[in-house]
Amino acid sequence: MPKSKKPQQKQQHQHQSKLQSPAATAPRVAPAAPPAAVAAPSVGERLSLLRHTREQRYAAAAYERVTAFLLEHQANPEACKKYRSIVLSAPALIRSAGLAQALAFLAVRPEPNQSRLVGDLAAIVGRGEQHDTQPSSGGERSAEGLLAQSRGGPTSSLQEYMLLTHQSLEALLWVRRFVQHHIADDGSLQHLQVRP
User: Fold this and answer.
1) Which residues does 58 contact at the CB level (< 8 Å), separation at least 6?
2) Which DSSP symbol is given to 140?
3) Which of 35, 45, 100, 195 is most deeply buried (CB count within 10 A of its CB)?
4) Three-state SS at 113
5) Other CB atoms closer than 10 Å to residue 26's CB: what's the count?
6) Which among 96, 87, 141 has a CA at the least distance from the CA of 115?
7) For residue 133, what pLDDT is reported?
């Protein structure tokens, strides 16, 4: 029996070598060399590298707004405590009631420091939509503008509302982070360095 297996294996090997393509048996050629000179990036490509992401613009705008609030209310821990409370509860309010109802509720709050959150949110979302090549004054949006956009109109779509909700929650995340860092549970300020 062992003799019969060897001729079969030899026949199979000869058959496989006949099936191989000429490309598989041909000698391999080295790949072509890369071009000698690589073109430098254009001005547009360099500018696109310098642009910030929307998250970075949200973070910068949220930091400015929260810091401005804290500097105005340094001596008033009760106002800081109420602002912290509304900032921490706003994401759950938006998720449960919807953006339009949550913003309307926040806008009519009797405490001005609590209703200020709508203006802060409008400015942050407006700043997130602008690009670094645009002037900074054109990006901020008013609280009334954000309220009107959240209520929509005859031409607005569900996708636009969902996008605005997503953007508002992203912006609110940054406000929440900075508020948690700078305002303690009792309303006292922490980690705040005032620069001249």
Assistant:
1) 124, 125, 127, 128, 170, 171, 173, 174
2) -
3) 100
4) helix
5) 8
6) 87
7) 40
Cβ 171 vs Cβ 125: under 8 Å = yes
Closest by CA position to 47, among listed 133, 130, 127? 133
**Count of Cβ atoms closer than 10 Å to residue 133 Cβ:** 9
Output the six-digit token pair for 34: 């890369």
Question: Does residue 55 register a pLDDT over 80?
Answer: yes
For residue 47, what pLDDT band results from cuts at 50, 70 and 90?
very low
Domains of the chain plus CATH, in order, are 52-182 (1.10.520.30)
Tokens of 182: 């700078």
Q: Burial level of 189, CB count in 10 A (0-12/13-18/19+)?
A: middle
pLDDT (tens digit, 9 = 90+) per residue, 103-161?
Answer: 999 988 888 877 789 999 999 988 766 544 444 444 556 888 888 888 887 777 888 99
Percent of the chain predicted with pLDDT > 70: 64
pLDDT at residue 186 greater than cutoff 50: yes
R_g (Cα) of the chain, nearest Å: 31
